[in-house]
Amino acid sequence: MKQNNENNYVRVSYNNFMTTRNRQFGNELTNFQRIPTRSASQFICSKPILKMEEEIIPPEFVNPYVVDIFEYLCVNQHKFMCQTPFYMNLQLDITNQMRSILIDWLVDVHLKFKLQPETLYLTINLIDRYLSKNTIMRNKLQLVGIASLFIASKFEEIYAPELKDFVHVCDNAYTKEEILEMESKILLTVQFSLTYTSPLKFLERQIQGANLCDKINYASRMILELSLLDIKCLKFSSSLLATTSILLAINMLRSPQVLPSSLHYIEDQEELRQCLSEFLPVISLLKSFNMTAIRRKYQLEKFNKIADVILTILPNQQ
């Protein structure tokens, strides 16, 4: 029974999964780049700016400490990043696409459990940090994912789901003991360091500080979550991922809003151009046939059905 569950984990049978594992997502929507977009240089200030508006400050960034807190986040963001972004080259039995499908499933579980957004980002961070230092077999990949979510929920949530809930959501593919054992392995690997500065922290500060509209807010969040599916995005810093998500949301929605000078905190302008360019195939994942969780999530009314809006902008698959 366990083998059957493993073969069907993340709602895609391995028979179908293995026939599409080599499929390149970029080929699904090659026409996306035909959409007229502003050049990356139009998004970049002449020099890096770290300036906080005083009129709109989230509670966690209350003056007079707002600048100090944000400067700390900018420095700390590199501390607990995955230090080997191309670790999948060292894995023998799992692939980038398997990782993507696992994350797609975790987005569904995260939504089902009604967890905080930060919990999802910490979960993915733990998965990548663990896999970058440990090789595993594919039948343990879901176990790493659910154990990471178990850890993140206990760290981020006031009322975390119980262990039995995590067993149930895996359709009893793993026992309580197996999840607890994997939890211990993950914590030892990351040396119990869970204070990850996620891109969501930067995105929320920038959205609120710049007083951007709800459409930009939800579109940015959706684009940022889509970046979780693409392992290539691990090489970019949290602040860069947040900034790129906002800039692309503004660009795609053709928003007339003026970009405030405090919108981004990027020192390497060339890196920003590269990140903007590499996010194009990330956005195309919104139309993926295999990974639908983020699309369905942002088609909900509470997110203003922003996925439907963006889908009308993306070109049709050929």
Describe this structure in words.
- The protein is mostly helical and 318 residues long.
- It folds into two domains: 166 residues, Cyclin-like (Cyclin A, domain 1); 103 residues, Orthogonal Bundle (Cyclin A, domain 1).
- Helix content is 53%, strand content 0%.
- The protein has 15 helices and no strands.
- Helix 10 runs antiparallel to helix 11.
- The radius of gyration is 19 Å and the shape is globular.
- The N and C termini lie far apart (39 Å).
- GO terms for molecular function: cyclin-dependent protein serine/threonine kinase regulator activity.
- Belongs to the cyclin family.
- Pfam families: Cyclin_C, Cyclin_N.
- One of its GO terms (cellular component) is cyclin-dependent protein kinase holoenzyme complex.
- InterPro entries: Cyclin, Cyclin-like_dom, Cyclin-like_sf, Cyclin_C-dom, Cyclin_N, Cyclins_cyclin-box.
Look at the structure and give the mean pLDDT: 79
- Give the proportion of residues in helices: 40-55%
Radius of gyration: 19 Å
The first-level CATH class name of the largest domain? Mainly Alpha
The helix/strand order is HHHHHHHHHHHHHHH
* Helix/strand/pairing category: mainly alpha
Q: Biggest β-sheet: count, sense, barrel? A: none
As for the CATH topology of the largest domain, it is Cyclin A, domain 1
**Overall geometry:** globular
Short structural summary:
It is built from 15 helices and no strands.
List keywords for this structure.
318 residues; mainly alpha; Cyclin A, domain 1; 15 helices; 0% strand; globular
Write the layout of secondary structure elements.
Blueprint: H1 2-7, H2 14-20, H3 25-28, H4 66-76, H5 96-112, H6 117-131, H7 141-156, H8 163-169, H9 176-189, H10 199-210, H11 214-227, H12 238-252, H13 269-284, H14 293-297, H15 306-313
Helix pairs in contact: 5-6, 5-7, 6-7, 7-9, 10-11, 10-12, 11-12, 12-13
Family: Belongs to the cyclin family.
Keywords: Cell cycle, Cell division, Cyclin
GO cellular component, one term: cyclin-dependent protein kinase holoenzyme complex
